[in-house]
Each structure stands twice: as structure tokens, then as C-alpha cells.
From TrEMBL:
InterPro entries: CheY-like_superfamily (IPR011006), HATPase_C_sf (IPR036890), PAS (IPR000014), PAS-like_dom_sf (IPR035965), Sig_transdc_His_kin_sub2_dim/P (IPR011495), Sig_transdc_resp-reg_receiver (IPR001789). It comes from Leptospira semungkisensis. The keyword Nucleotide-binding applies. Residues 151-196 form the PAS domain. Keywords: ATP-binding, Kinase, Nucleotide-binding, Phosphoprotein, Transferase. This is histidine kinase. The modification 4-aspartylphosphate is found at D66. Gene3D superfamilies: 3.40.50.2300, Histidine kinase-like ATPase, C-terminal domain, PAS domain. One of its GO terms (biological process) is phosphorelay signal transduction system. Pfam families: HisKA_2, PAS_9, Response_reg.
């Protein structure tokens, strides 16, 4: 009883056989075994087979090859075809019963060696099917092996060419298993010396807790830790260690990536030293400017005490307060940790304290300052301080005539990238404001010049209920 096998996919077989009867027998056998899944092509010579393969090699699943052909004898034809088309499996079907030849054919890559007259349809079909499956499996394994080798080579390149030292060590013994060339350069050991070391040998103090960090490593990536290592010659190295713990071939392994922080730390310390020197220099500059301005203010105050003309005395005191407002900025910076900004609340309080003292104002004029925690850069603080000085001076002189008490206020807020400042009083207002503005008095001129310097919008409102200066500029 013949056995038939139904294939799931049409197979194309190239029969290289010069005997028509044998070719016909192969056809009958294969049709009997798989009537719907086999398609045959024929060639009587190796030369013709090569010509057909040149056009149809992508379609051929297997080659059934006789070793005795008009243009080829023995393994010559097999070697010619397999060398040109190694991706196609070859089953040898020969009339020669030669064990040595069969052994050589199989060693050379033949999938099977059948002897004519000693097989049936099932054996022939099974040989061809196994040849195709075995060849496909070997091709897949070879492809996988290639990808594995390619992957290993890629990771080896990454490992070796990492710009930082990389070590691989056994967590149980701490023995160093592998390393890259940067580790050799940084630590000064060669590869053989490294592989004779344990990981804790790299620490400057092997007994420190840092040298036992391997005992607390968790699987996966561990947070970077900084430890002092040493070179082969004893030179200390500040190393930041990022560790990856995993299993490899049944062992607990740690991959340690080490970043040499020594030069960075030295650069950081150098920069900090330079910064401290510059801060000291800036403080000295602010101190000297403040002292010089205060000397000028003191000279003006001394001159005012000797002046007999009241108008001259008043002008000298006004100028003194203007200079003081400038020196106060430098005083605040000198006493501040931040040499680029002035705290507005402290600055305004001291500025008003000076004015109240210069003009002998007591508690009858209450001060209301609401500026929160705002700070201003030096280039903003100077003009703002001088504007407040001018407005406050005018309020002290003119706003409270005929009144026993009053209020002077300053409100500052920052909102949506804009600084808003309101400075004013609840005094009698400026009754002749239009006339004063047209005369361009020094105080008003200064306020307008300073607002332009700030690129600020200035608005002045005055009535019998008081005067308010509103300033807003991008901050």
C-alpha cells in the first residue's frame, strides 16, 4: 500500500539526471508521495542545470543530483553547483554504491545519499522533505548565529570604546572579569594585572564602607555613588560609580561604569575660588563707592550747616539725600550675599529713615510700605531709589502743609512680567501742578529722566486727596 503525503506548499525540485527512465521514475515516485505539492524541472547536464539556476534559483527548493553525468563525474558536479548556490539543499541519487564517495559527499554538504533501485516513493519524498527542512533550519541557525555574533561585536565595540572606564566583576568574589581600554588608561594597570585584582583593591581605603557597596547592590541599575579610588602608582582618583547588577551564566555579575571626577572637581574648586575672589572684589568696589558717596553727602551736610541762605540750605539737603539714595544701594549690595540684586523692602525703609531724619519728620507722617519680597537688579534699584527719594522729598516739603498728620505710601508688585510701583501721599495735592510741570523743576525733570531710563510708563495723579506717582516697566 502506497503512502501519500499532502504538502502545505508547492515545492520545486530540479532533477539533474541524464537517464530519462530514471527521471521518469523519480517523477512517478514523487507524484505518488505528494501528487499536488511537487513540481519538477529537468536537466541532463550540470552546465544546463547552472543555466536554469541562473534564472530560477529563487524558485528551486531542492536539487536531486546524479553523480554520473555527460559533463561531470563524481563530486565535481556537486561541488560546482553547491559552491555557486549554497542556499539550495542537494540530495544525491547515484547508481554507484561507494561508501567512501557517499561519506565525502555528505561531508561536503550533501543532505542525503540515495542509491538507485534501493528506495521507494516514501523514502525519496522524505529525503527531499528532510533535506529542505534541515537546510532551512541550518540557514536560520546560521542567521541567528550571525546576528548573535554581530550583536556581540557591536556591544564589544561599545564596551571597548566607552569614553569612561568600564569594569565587569563577580559580585561573590569581587574578581574583575573584564574591562575596557579606558580603565587601563585611567588606573594604570594592564589587562592581565586588572584580572588579578578584586574590585575593592581599587579603593583608596579598602576598609571604607564605600568598598562594600557591592553587598547592597540591587538588580538593575543602581544610583551613582562617589568614592575615592587610586591609580597603580597611588595617585587618588575621585570616581563616580554607576552599577548594573544582573545574572550571567549562573553568576551574579556587576557592570560598573566609572566616571573620573578628579579633574572636574579640581575645575570646580578653581571656579569657586575664582568666584570667591570676584565676589570679594565686587564687595570692595561697592564698599569704596558707598564710602566715597557718603563722604560727598557728609560734605554737603557740613556745607548746609554753614550756609546762611535758606534756599541754598534746602538745595544742599536735597542733593545730600539724592547722593545718599545712591550710596545706600552700594551699602545694601556690600552687606548682601547676592551681589547683583537689592532687596526692595530693606532699601526703601533705610531710604525713608534717612529722609525722615534729614527733614526732622516724626511719627505724625505715617509710612506704609508694601513691596513684599521683591528684589531689583542694581541698574533698576538706583533709578527707582532716586525716584522714590524725589517723590518723598516733595511730599515732606509740600504735601502736609496745614495738617498735623498724614500718610506716605509705597506699593510694589510684580505681575505677568511687569513691575508696578505706586508712590504717593494723602496730602493736599499739587494745586499748581500744570505751572510746576511747565517750569520743569529739577525734581520733576529727574523723575521723568529716570522713568525714561527704566523704559517705564509714568502716570501722575494729583487732587485735594493727595498725589500718586504710578510707574510700570517690564521686569
Amino acid at each position: 500500500m502506497s503512502t501519500r503525503v499532502v504538502s502545505s506548499q508547492m515545492k520545486q525540485i530540479l532533477v539533474v539526471e541524464d537517464n530519462p527512465d530514471d527521471s521518469r521514475l523519480f517523477e512517478l515516485y514523487l507524484m505518488e508521495a505528494d501528487p499536488s505539492g511537487i513540481r519538477l524541472r529537468y536537466s541532463a547536464t550540470v552546465t544546463n542545470a547552472m543555466e536554469q539556476l541562473e534564472d530560477y534559483s529563487d524558485e528551486i527548493d531542492c536539487i536531486l543530483l546524479d553523480l554520473s553525468l555527460p559533463d561531470s563525474f563524481g563530486l565535481h558536479g556537486f561541488e560546482t553547483i553547491s559552491r555557486a548556490y549554497p542556499e539550495i539543499p542537494i540530495v544525491i541519487c547515484s547508481g554507484t554504491e561507494d561508501e567512501n564517495l557517499a561519506s565525502e559527499a555528505l561531508k561536503a554538504g550533501g543532505q542525503d545519499y540515495l542509491i538507485k533501485g534501493r528506495f521507494d516513493s516514501l523514502l525519496l519524498f522524505r529525503s527531499i522533505r528532510y533535506a529542505i527542512e534541515r537546510h532551512d533550519m541550518l540557514a536560520k541557525l546560521e542567521k541567528q548565529s550571525y546576528h548573535i555574533r554581530e550583536s556581540e561585536e557591536r556591544y564589544r565595540l561599545i564596551f571597548e570604546n566607552n569614553p569612561h572606564p568600564v569594569l565587569l566583576y563577580d559580585i561573590a568574589s569581587e574578581g574583575i572579569l573584564d574591562l575596557n581600554q579606558e580603565a587601563e588608561r585611567v588606573y594604570g594597570y594592564n589587562r592581565r594585572e586588572f584580572q588579578g585584582l578584586q574590585f575593592h583593591n581599587l579603593f583608596a581605603n579598602p576598609n571604607s564602607s564605600g568598598s562594600n557597596l557591592f553587598s547592597i547592590l540591587k538588580y538593575g541599575k543602581n544610583l551613582p555613588e562617589t568614592h575615592v579610588h587610586k591609580r597603580k602608582d597611588g595617585t587618588p582618583l575621585l570616581m563616580e560609580i554607576t552599577s548594573y547588577r544582573f545574572q550571567l551564566q549562573g553568576k551574579e555579575i556587576v557592570l560598573a561604569i566609572l566616571v573620573d571626577m578628579t579633574k572636574w572637581k579640581q575645575s570646580e574648586e578653581s571656579l569657586l575660588q575664582s568666584l570667591r575672589e570676584k565676589e570679594a572684589l565686587l564687595q570692595e568696589i561697592h564698599h569704596r563707592v558707598k564710602n566715597n558717596l557718603q563722604i560727598m553727602a557728609s560734605l554737603l551736610n557740613l556745607q548746609a550747616n554753614y550756609a546762611k541762605n535758606k534756599e541754598v540750605t534746602r538745595e544742599l539737603k536735597d542733593t545730600e539725600s539724592r547722593i545718599y539714595s545712591m550710596s545706600l544701594v552700594h551699602n545694601e549690595l556690600y552687606n548682601s550675599k547676592n551681589l547683583s540684586e537689592v532687596g526692595l523692602a530693606s532699601y526703601v525703609d533705610k531710604l525713608l529713615d534717612n529722609l525722615w531724619n534729614v527733614y526732622g519728620i516724626g511719627s505724625e507722617i505715617r509710612r506704609a510700605v508694601e513691596v513684599g519680597e521683591l528684589s531689583l537688579a542694581v541698574e533698576k534699584a538706583l533709578p527707582i531709589g532716586m525716584m522714590i527719594n524725589e517723590i518723598a522729598t516733595n511730599s515732606i516739603k509740600y504735601a502736609y502743609k496745614g495738617r498735623k498728620n498724614g500718610e506716605f505710601f509705597i506699593r510694589g508688585i510684580y505681575r505677568n512680567g511687569v513691575f508696578f510701583l505706586e508712590v504717593g501721599d494723602n496730602g493736599v495735592g499739587i494745586s499748581d501742578y500744570a505751572e510746576i510741570e511747565s517750569k520743569e523743576t529739577l525734581g520733576f525733570q529727574l523723575i521723568q529722566i529716570l522713568s525714561k531710563q527704566l523704559k517705564a510708563r509714568l502716570n501722575i495723579q494729583t487732587s485735594a486727596q493727595g498725589t500718586k506717582f504710578s510707574v510700570e516697566f517690564p521686569f
